[in-house]
Amino acid sequence: MKQKTLQIAVIGSGFAGLSAAAYLAKRGYDVDVYEKNTEIGGRARQLQTDNGYIFDMGPSWYWMPEVFEKFFNDFGCKAADFYDLQLLDPGFSVVFGAGDILTIPANFERLCQLFESIESGSAENLKKFLAEAEYKYKVGMEKLVYKPGLSIFEFADKDLIKGLFKLQVFTSFSSHVKKYFKDPRLIALMEFPVLFLGAMPEDTPALYSLMNYAGLKLGTWYPKGGFGKVIQAMKTVAEKQGAQFYTNAAVTALEVQGKHIVKLSSEKGAKTYDGVIAAADYHHIEEKLISRPHRNYSEQYWQNRILAPSCLIFYLGVNTKVDCLNHHTLFFDEDLKQHSHEIYKDAQWPSKPLFYVCCPSITDPTVAPDGHENLFILMPLAPDVKDPETVRERYFLLIMDRLEAYTGTSIREHLDYKKSYCVSDFIADYNSFKGNAYGLANTLMQTANLKPSLKNKKISNLFYAGQLTVPGPGVPPSIISGNVAAQQLIKYLNQ
User: pLDDT digit string (tens) for 311-322?
Assistant: First the structure.
């Protein structure tokens, strides 16, 4: 008699859900992916307007290209089969004030020359700093990120133990950077990636200098057509393995018998399953879809977690070209420390915010009409703050004053599309805990095994994936998370 094919449900179609679905379907399981929104992609959805703009709604930095490549290679293909990847040169710019701009070249020797022109001896220090960061990156990507974080014995690896000191898990990122650089602009440049890791640089382990290696040595890339092309590529891979996708299909309940989920209910109806990957918001799954006795964590546990930021985003269509911007431009013309404090220590709307502008139409003419510009503006913000339209508009005017002064363009006079997105939208669209945009902060006490567990401890066939569990926030970690969760479910089903 032919053995019944096991049925697997994946909740959420962001990077983690797509990854999990593809790996599970490859192993021969019948995989259904449930997405509450009209489009797949989670935070990496695209917004297409009637007047010709295509906005990436979330991720815009394509770092760690080898993680994407590994995903496609695992299915006998490569990223280039689906989209064109372009190395950005310059990678990005940082604006510290009028006439005080650091433009970061893709070429490392030119980057060293730039550092040396700012601070004598800093080129050599940059090489030393990034040599350490490369070690952390390689250990992290080869030894750490694919571990499920279910046992401390996963780290009983002689190379890991031998290199523990070099990983600098217990050293502050801020103090580590200041050992090498004195100029405040160089310090800000090195610290900016951790602004999105979810903690002050002084509270972030120096392990995360691996992000500097990723950005400054491996380069900043752009997938032509935007991140939506990556989402579509991963969906195509999953579908070729046999996965089925259901949109407008919010999951409403998970029925548990004994220690197993047996049925999933959604807006499309109810169906029995042999296993579930929860790649939607972890807190939402626990609080809304399963009963209290089956949850991993109490509400108090969640309230005590340190979250990475939320953000205020503006999607702007501009019917003229805008000068002085690169594909990525960071506006650090206010105090980074103060803005960070108002995100992580004293949660409030920032008094003098930093912000970031992505102008993909500089690189890619397909995302805006001819002669127009596509602007994505993001201001990091504390999660769980109120975001009425009046407050959003106040910050829009503040940002526009600075951006127009910098570019010399009256952007507001040339708008033919404008949409804001903030805390309450993250909650409405993604059931995001407290409206966070990036998941959990990568503090020491929320690293590796100290993150929320990838496995439900009371339900044997439920595993979690995404930015609130291992390995952490960001697009590459989410892709890896889906893979790791899928392998753990496969291991359970094969027992």
Answer: 999 999 999 999
